[in-house]
Amino acid sequence: LIEITWVTGIGGTEGLETVVRVEMHDVDNTVLLRITHAGFKDEKSKDIHQYAWGFILDKLEEDLEKKYSR
């Protein structure tokens, strides 16, 4: 379990401190990540981050598959 505060400027959290929680679970020899990002000031900011996390996690999965499928 990792839990950190996250603050960005315009177009992000707008200077508001949010909390990112990353949980890692072993499921059949595969690591399952559960990311929760909370504390947004409004739905727009939450939606932007939801999109960004999806993009980041897709990229992470792609990079890990390349690295470990050799």
SSE topology sketch:
Blueprint: E1 2-6, E2 18-27, E3 30-38, H1 43-68
Antiparallel strand pairs: 1-2, 2-3
Structural summary, described in words:
This protein has one helix spanning 43-68, and strands at 2-6, 18-27, 30-38. The mean pLDDT is 93. It has a three-stranded antiparallel beta sheet with strand order 1-2-3. The chain is of the alpha+beta class and 70 residues long. It is elongated, with a radius of gyration of 14 Å.
What low-confidence regions span 5 or more consecutive residues with pLDDT below 50? Answer: none
Largest sheet: 3 strands, antiparallel
Instruction: Indicate the structural class.
Output: alpha+beta
Multimeric state: single chain
Percent of residues in β-strands = 25-35%
What helical percentage do the residues reach?
A: 25-40%
The count of helical stretches stands at 1
Number of strands: 3
SSE topology string: EEEH
Q: How far is it from the N-terminal to the C-terminal residue, by CA?
A: 29 Å
**What spatial order of strands do you see in the largest sheet?**
1-2-3
